[in-house]
Amino acid sequence: MRARNHLLVIAALMGASAPTAAQPPQAPAPQELLPFVPRQVSPEVRLIATPPDYFGPAIGNIVVIEQSDGLVVVDSGSSIGTGRKAVRYIRSVTPKPVKAIVITHWHNDHPQGVAAFKEIWPNLRLISTPQTKAGMLGPELDGVGLTPSDANVQKLKDQIDATKNQYEALLKAPDTPEDRKERIRKALPQFDLFLNDFPGTYVIPPSETFTSRLVIPDAKVPVELRYLGRANTEGDAVIWLPKQKIVATGDIVVSPVPFGFGSFPSDWIETIAKIKKLGFRVLIPGHGEPMTDSSYLDKLAASIATIRDKVGAAAKAGMTFAEVKAKVDLTSEADRFGTVSRLKAAVPNLWTAPMTVNAYKEAKGLPMLQTDIGEEPK
């Protein structure tokens, strides 16, 4: 499967969720909204997200922006079930309709809840960049089709069953640390909840695309959709609220450990610099807690530059990819992002290994495609 797998990503990151800055306490979520714990970021913006103690399959952040005549939603969840929970929450806090959904990128934990929104608001605008639309009609369809499929549900169930069997074995193993066992005990029912939300999920392609900038006007809360360049994918959309100085980045920014699959190192650094120049007050990442300064952006850009420099130098010196993997030392990046041991353990799988692929291809002038997730150079 070329599309990024929910389970592989979150299994590698298991236990890694952690806030990036001090956050106000979150009220317990109603049972019908789990695994989401919604909160208000500003008077105009709400965040629907999984909490720091969520260890199940990845679900991207959903941002709800209130304008005078309706709502603009950024991303939609990982399934029709998670989308319905987001809809349930939205309808509990405002009678205004959702008039537009912006999909930040095609990775499957962000666009797959759209069908739930269209059940209630069938005429909403569905917007992305052309590159994201291409990804949704390409690799995303490896896991979810354009119509609901029992076969796709069974495929996900098989993946979840295999992962749960691994976790059950770890629970029984005498050398598994107790803190990891505690995370596994929390994760197991979260995997079941994710599977229960999945039946009926299918892809709805965007009906509208933009190439550089699109404005959804409003007197008090104008929303600007920006394409600032390649980063985590070919078509990452950035959502900017110039009056509120709030930016939503999708997976250009993920914390506490970034995702590096199929991305574009040098362009990513430039895109981060453009986000910094916006002068945001709050940054809402694709996964993780809102940020109130640019320190994590600096850390992310520095890490990309370090990997690019080390891998690029080795590649240009004539090393094969296998030699680069074996000889280039990137343990500094585990220390950069890993404030605790479980975060350090997540960095190689989620970050340095895929970024080594990307940096090597870039240095050698090899084709770089957003669909080449995990495909190592020959």
What's this entry about, in short?
The chain is an alpha/beta fold and 378 residues long. It contains 11 helices and 12 strands.
How would you describe the shape? Answer: globular
Q: Which CATH C-level class is it?
A: Alpha Beta
Largest sheet: 7 strands, mixed
Beta-strand residue percentage: 5-15%
Q: Unreliable segments (pLDDT under 50, ≥5 consecutive)?
A: 14-25
- Total number of strands: 12
What's the CATH superfamily, by name? Ribonuclease Z/Hydroxyacylglutathione hydrolase-like
**Number of helices, counting only DSSP H or I runs of 4 residues or more:** 11
Architecture, according to CATH? Answer: 4-Layer Sandwich
* First and last CA, distance: 19 Å
CATH third-tier fold name:
Metallo-beta-lactamase, Chain A
Please, how many domains? 1
Mean pLDDT: 91
H/E series: HEEEEHEHEHHHEEEEEHEHHHH
Q: Bin the helical content.
A: 25-40%
Order of strands side by side in the largest beta sheet?
A: 1-2-3-4-5-6-7
Structural topology:
Elements: H1 6-12, E1 39-42, E2 45-48, E3 62-67, E4 70-74, H2 80-93, E5 98-102, H3 114-120, E6 125-128, H4 130-136, H5 150-172, H6 178-197, E7 208-209, E8 213-216, E9 223-226, E10 238-241, E11 246-248, H7 265-277, E12 282-284, H8 295-316, H9 321-327, H10 331-337, H11 341-364
Parallel strand pairs: 4-5, 5-6, 6-7, 11-12
Antiparallel strand pairs: 1-2, 2-3, 3-4, 8-9, 9-10, 10-11
Helix pairs in contact: 2-3, 5-6, 7-8, 8-11, 10-11
